[in-house]
Write a structure and sequence with these properties.
The protein is an alpha+beta fold. It has helices at 108-117, 123-139, 143-158, 188-197, 248-304, 340-343, 346-362, 401-423, 450-457, 468-474, 476-483, and strands at residues 3-7, 13-17, 22-26, 38-39, 50-55, 58-63, 70-72, 75-77, 79-81, 87-90, 93-98, 162-167, 176-181, 201-203, 220-227, 232-240, 308-313, 318-322, 366-374, 377-387, 392-399, 440-441, 447-448. Helices cover 37% and strands 25% of the residues.
Length: 484
Amino acid sequence: MAKLKVRLPNGSEEAYTFSEEEIYIGKDDLSQQIENDLAIDDETVSRRHARIFREKGHYYIEDLGSRNHTYVNDERIKRIRLADQDQIRVGFTILTFAADIPQDQPTGETAAKADSVDPSNTVDLHYLIINKISQKFNQTNDIDTICEWVIKLSCQSTGADGGAILLFDQDPMPYCQIYYGASDSYRRPLVAQVLGSGEAAIYNPGTDPADTLLAEEMHSAICVPLRSKDSLMGVLYIEDKSAKKFGNSDLRLLTDIARQTAGGLERLILNERVHKEKNSRENLENFLKSLQQSEVTNRALLNAIPDLMMQLNQDGTVLACKMPKNTIPLFGDDLPGKRLHDLLPGEINQRTLGYISKALYSGTVQVFEFDLQVHGKKRFYENRIMACGSEAVLSIIRDVTDRVEAEAAKEQLIRELRDALTKIKTLRGLIPICSSCKKIRDDKGYWNQLELYLQEHSEAEFSHGICDDCMKAWYPDYAKKSDR
């Protein structure tokens, strides 16, 4: 029995064996009660697309007024006799006819009838495919999605096993590789040839003597350029492992697909670049705004700092400065261009230059203090020096006279308090005293008069006199006279 090998748009294959003298091919529509003997789930197939029937020992195919027409060996037909291994294209579905007995090839009147019915040279099929590509570009802006869909469409339309879209820029390696089918590689020499010449090419194994030993491992392949208005952006590549070799009709179809795809990709790439440039411009504008805001903030912070700020190079030349506010100025306003040895005494100038070198070498902040006579008064300053780039430093000089004077006053007060404390003497503990003469024994074991001991161990001072009892006891005569 005759058979049909059906290659579906998703790449799968099915076999259909003729069991009737007539079969209908199309897409079932149960809502309209339309069922086909060979039902194909393909949106490009009409509900009643075509029929194959047997007549006088031969098989014929007839288009039933389908929307996308019926093609045999890439020729649009209305009715034609089938031969063994004819390829039938119904929408995007490919059917291969295998006769149960070898069929005579249609010749003479039959062949002429087939050609004279509608010799379109696949124009309608190409138009259908190109139209679907245009619709796809209107549905999505994602380049990877478009490329994957186009290479899938190309493989389904030509019956290829797989393929790829390769996009190039200045680099010899593609920056974008989208594959479909079983293979994830491509014939580099063929792609290089097309990129170099800008012309489409077909490769069939065995046609080149150099490929003889590797012919069994080689693939039939077609490679066509994806050309924009100004340059070659990449290639559309398909290949097939079977014995079937691609023909000129496949090359023409793929060329039309590549031309339409290149135009769409060029627009997408241009839109993507415009979008990126727009984002970059917006990011730059936002950065400039933030920079301006940062500059305003930094200026406000600088103005709020009451210190003298100078940018100095390695030899101590003033590059820029900000004068202090609300303090007695250390220098005049015309500082830029002057050198430190013109502004500071020799010893302070040398110290400052040394700290500048340390700050540039170590990258750490250097802090030191110095004093100067300003307007007849000694004033004190703190200088903080930090690296500002590789060849300059920022010097911040703060008037710390009030702090130094406050610290000096505090130290003076502390000294006075300590002196006062040293003069305060107290008697504590157990003091040995003679019960008879009332002398006190000191730490060295000597007995001292009571008044001497107290004078040494306290702030007390004594004046000497004699009480009445002692007067009577020791000087009775004087006591009697006093009583009189």
